[in-house]
Amino acid sequence: MRFYFIRDEKSFPVACIASTIDTTDRVCYALSIYNPKDEFDRARARDIAANRLRKGKFFGTTPNVRGIKERVMMSIRDNSGIPERVREAARLWLSKATTGASSQADGHAD
User: Is residue 63 within 8 Å of residue 71, measured between CB atoms?
Assistant: First the structure.
């Protein structure tokens, strides 16, 4: 399972993305979305996203090909069921990725 934290234009966390490869070789992902009224808790965000992924509460899937993080961000950007501020953060990440400054999502494998 991999985790990414997507951030807004002020570098504040907006969501945690948990992703994994399923038995059909597709990348599935789930989100925990940060409520600005709450105090950000990185560990709790990871737990929520991971539990949603384990329970099959996916926000989307994408092919397991090169550029997985970019494909997940494109899927988030295009998913009208995801809150606009998260979609906007994905658009920001994608715009920075095309210019070579893609530090918007700090991901690591677990």
Answer: yes
How many angstroms separate the Cα of 27 from the Cα of each of 20, 37, 43?
6, 31, 22
Rounded distance between C-alpha atoms, residue 52 and residue 15, angstroms: 13
Q: Tell me the per-residue pLDDT of 12-64, one tens digit each, with 9 for 90 and over.
A: 999 999 999 888 888 999 999 998 888 889 999 999 999 999 998 888 888 78
Residue 66 CB neighbours (<10 A): 7
Residue 15 in any domain: the answer is yes
Full domain range(s) for residue 7: 2-103
Residue 95 CB: number of other CB atoms within 10 A?
A: 12
Q: How many CA atoms lie less than 13 Å away from 73 in the CB half-sphere?
A: 26
- Number of domains the chain is built from: 1
